[in-house]
Amino acid sequence: MDDTSAASPDGFTDVERDAIKQRAAELRQEARRGTGADKAAADEEDVLGVIAGLPQPDRAIAEHIHAAVAVQAPGLSPKLWYGMPAYARDGKIVCFFVSAQKEKARYSSLGFNPEANLDEGAMWPTAFAITELTEAGAAAISALIRKAAG
Fold first, then answer.
1. I need a labelling partner for 1 at 20 to 30 A (CA). Which of 7, 9, 20, 119 fits?
2. Distance (Å, whole) CA 67 – CA 49
3. Beta strands of 15-136 (E only): which ranges?
4. φ, ψ at 81 (rounded to 5°)
5. What's the CA gap between 69 and 23, in Å, rounded?
6. Which helix H or strand E contains 72, and what residues bound it?
7. What is the pTM for the complete model shown?
């Protein structure tokens, strides 16, 4: 086990601790920005900056998710969430991307919070592993985002 997956005495891995610090910085930045069009533009710029800094194939996947949200769910607002691209409605995160490289994981993922309209019966998935962006995968991502934004 390497240092990134071993929990420290406080119970958090280095990756988890970094994500917590990133989220705290995001909350401080949100408080300084206030509300309105300037905040929305700055939030999107932050998301695009993070996406641009991702290595491939994560960058291509995140770019597709960002474009799919713009087309399929224009009512969702881009913002950073734990240092990763996320999309919110009324300030609540609906869906988010998690980079395999940043998390030192085997795959990236597209996740959905309870605000997403994905309900199907008594059980449904809330996260999807993505190892590469295929044509079928891109179509599935677009359909999931459209449904989540409902």
1. 20
2. 14
3. 77-81, 84-89, 92-98, 108-112, 127-130
4. -145, 115
5. 22
6. helix 58-72
7. 0.81
12-48: pLDDT as tens digits: 888 888 888 877 877 777 777 667 778 889 999 999 9
Q: How far apart are the first and last CA of the chain?
A: 42
Cα–Cα dist 102/51, whole Å: 12
Which domains does the chain show, CATH number per domain? 14-149 (3.90.1150.200)
Alpha carbon distances (Å) from 136 to 22, 51, 132, 139, 146: 33, 22, 11, 5, 15
Residue in this structure with the two tokens 């609906």, named with its chain if needed: 94
Q: Does position 49 have pLDDT exceeding 70, yes or no?
A: yes
pLDDT digits (tens, 9 = 90+) for 124-142: 999 999 999 999 999 999 9
